[in-house]
Amino acid sequence: MAMARIVLPALLSLALTGVPALFARSAAAVPYEGQTRHETALFSVKSSDNAAAQAFTVAGNRLSRVSVYLGSGASSGTVTAQIRRVLTDAGSALATKTVDLAALGGAGAGWVEFPVGAEVTPGATYYLFLQATTAQSEPVAWYGTLQSVPGSLTSWNYDRAYWGGWHAAASRLAFHVNPTGNERCGETEPCYVPSSARAGRTAGVLTNRVATEAVLPSFAVGASYVDGSNVLRLPSGRWRYLPDGASNSTVVAADDPDALAQIDESRSWLATGRLPGTTTAQRDAAKRALLSMRALLKPNGAFAAGWSPPWEYSWPRDGAFAAAAFAATGHDEEAYRILDYDARTQRADGTWEARTKLDGSGPPDARKWQLDGNGWVPWATWQWYQAAPSDSRNERLRALYPMVRKAADYAARSLGPNGLPPASPDYWELDTTSTNIGTAAPLLAGLNASADLAAQLGMDGDAARWGDAARRLSAGIATAFAPLGYQRTIDGAHGRDSAVAFMAPPFNTAPAGLGAALDSTYRALLLPNGGVSPGNDPSFSWGSYAWTASTCFFALAWSGTGEQAKAAEVLHWVLSKRNGLGEFPETVNGAGLPSSVAPLGWTDSLVVLTTLALQGAPLPTPPTRFDRR
Predict the structure, then answer these.
(1) Bond preceding residue 506 cis, omega within 30 of 0
(2) What dihedral angle (degrees, nearest 10) is formed by the CA atoms of 406, 409, 415, 416?
């Protein structure tokens, strides 16, 4: 009961005061093998002054494992479980098993399983005894319920100072004896979840290529994907997957035929394309990124940014990068599907909403539209065209060309007398008072891409018009942004911006002086955790969180400007921040832990593109056509 007591225990050898040695085995007609409620931290199990035990009976004659719901504020130490014949006698133990708190991940809470092997007598009463050893001051407790549990046996609390020894409690501890099926942790309830794992909103995704389901961080602990798939192998050894035609996942035996069929289909899909990477770590990361991108792609071409409610929308920007990555790795159908969705959701004036609902019915709210989409979508269309099968790509491009024309014409008309577009929200999704590089650079890429696509189809007038617009925009960027080192805005009032990387390949041919701007911006945005912030605008703080997409911008830019060593070093950091399932998170917190959603489709795409570049197969850069007018 006395939860505040925290003293280093002398493990298991309790000085039992005033407790007669008659808590021995007795017959019980109905087995009592578990109690699942765990809303209350019932008893401290820490130190020689505290422990707890649960009486139980079983129908069978052998114990294989037991589990308890444990909560620990301590990050190191051990927790020991014993199966005793006599509550008060450590010498009566049939089995003893110790787990290490650090190996569990440190401080946290959840179900902890203890493998034990012991022969028992059916119907006899035994005691599941628990005690922790730690040098830290934080509590370690066994959880349970204060509610009545019909048919239950007694839970026992040992508190030397409060009770003078053992005390029979009215509350009931949470435990399982020989847990099977959904009693195993990680199935209906999580295994022990380290506090560090709770920084994320989601940890992974399951899919049947129609429906998608998030894997929560609490259910990712101890789990892993079956290689080359989105089927999850649970700590119990069973599999969780999203069956074809279903909207919710189910748990099945390993090697379930339907789950195996889904695994085979995923592996076949991967095999139809290219898996980039120069190292095993890069190839594994690219494989997981491609599978997660596929899980975020809906049948209608909408590409979800992530799979948590605020991210379950399709941004033109995120979809453009995914389309480029799919195309470059040989997954033509997925790339074209995204572009076709863009064509169907384009507004009449040639722009796009900031984001749309995944059914394509329109925006979810009044968030202001963002002009950079008019650059990203034509750029992605050009990237798809470069990789598409040559025998059919012109015909398919013609179907997309009205979209490209409307987007490029709007971009060209938006340029002012200084050659620059107006202020508009960009990937920060925040207004600026003057033109920002996060809009200007993508528009330059998009205009050059559009001009080249027009030339491929013999649309010489369009090619000339958009080439001229690209020339004016390029000159405006050189005049207004270059002298400032490509800071966020032309007024110099909003600091550095990771969007400086958008001036590099595979978006734009790197202008003179860009290398120095990349270096200085990276240094300015580098955080103690090793990643970078999107920017350092003095009027807006990103806090201590590094953004994996912004960090990848630099890796991709350096891989395209001949700085391979720098690119590889940054990519290595990004790869090191994958979570336990191998997914890339949106952010990394100040403690260096994955946070926000995982996977993030934008980061997945950037990793794929960077690994391709480091392998010697970088995406091409749209050519500048204005010098051939």
Answers:
(1) yes
(2) -110
